[in-house]
Amino acid sequence: MLSAMVKALQDWNIEHKLFSIALDNASMNDSFMSSLKENLVERKLLPSNGDLFHSRCAVHILNLIVQDGLSAISGATHKIRESVRYVGALQARKQRFKEMISK
Prior knowledge:
Elements: H1 2-11, E1 20-23, H2 27-42, H3 47-50, E2 53-56, H4 58-72, H5 74-89, H6 91-102
Parallel strand pairs: 1-2
Helix pairs in contact: 5-6
Keywords: Metal-binding, Nucleus, Zinc, Zinc-finger
Main location: nucleus
Subcellular location: Nucleus
């Protein structure tokens, strides 16, 4: 993966312009970033004194937060879905439900 990234940076002629990279939170990306930075520092290609800013992908972080929230309320959402199925299964239940909510 490292060699493919370095080759892409060279092909695009941006290896000496890189100062930031965004990746998801996969643990292998931490070691990848270390290797990439080491490679670029050895070749003196990083601007800003050899610093490389590694940012986590905000969308991935947001997805993790949402998934955690959904798992926290999964019991309640299951009960709501089952209630909707129960009421919607028979016309008499639907009618009774409509009467109850109109009061």
